[in-house]
Amino acid sequence: QVHLVESGGGLVQPGGSLRLSCVGSGFTFSNYDMTWYRQAPGKERELVGSTTYYVDSVKGRFTISRDNAKNTVYLQMNSLKPEDTAVYYCNAVARTPYGRVEYWGQGTQVTVSS
């Protein structure tokens, strides 16, 4: 059974930092492209980035890394702003002989507020 489990969210003051983790199980983690998305209240889900790409709004503040030995992808968030408040999701995608396969985690809430 496939699982993607995010953790590390919480309440942080503006300018603070958080590190999110996403652990995968039930699939060959290293074969999948891992990305982070977020969805703010009343807005559509948006791509945050991957290890090779970041949306402009987080460039220079967020860093994505992965440890295939631990089946984990990380999102290090620094200099957090209130507009970073959202539910953060990790996403796993692979192209297999059977087609495109995609998994989502359940999300973790990040709230940036004083």
Q: How would you summarize what this structure contains?
A:
With 114 residues, the chain is mostly beta strands.
SSE arrangement, N to C: EEEEEEEEEE
- Morphology call: elongated
Radius of gyration: 14 Å
Summarize the biggest pleated sheet: 6 strands, mixed
Detail the poorly predicted runs.
Answer: none
Continuous helix count: 0
Question: Which class best fits the helix and strand makeup?
Answer: mainly beta
Beta-strand percentage?
A: over 45%
What is the overall pLDDT average?
96
Write the layout of secondary structure elements.
Blueprint: E1 3-7, E2 10-12, E3 18-25, E4 33-39, E5 46-49, E6 62-67, E7 72-77, E8 86-96, E9 99-104, E10 108-112
From the structure above, extract its key features.
elongated; 114 residues; 6-stranded mixed beta sheet; mainly beta; single chain
Question: What does this molecule look like?
Answer:
Strands 2, 4, 5, 8, 9 and 10 form a 6-stranded mixed sheet that branches. The chain has a 4-stranded antiparallel sheet with strand order 1-3-7-6, with no helix packed on it. It is built from no helices and 10 strands. By secondary structure, it is mainly beta. The model has no long low-confidence stretch (mean pLDDT 96). The protein has strands spanning 3-7, 10-12, 18-25, 33-39, 46-49, 62-67, 72-77, 86-96, 99-104, 108-112. The radius of gyration is 14 Å and the shape is elongated. β8 (86-96) and β9 form a beta hairpin. Helix content is 0%, strand content 54%.
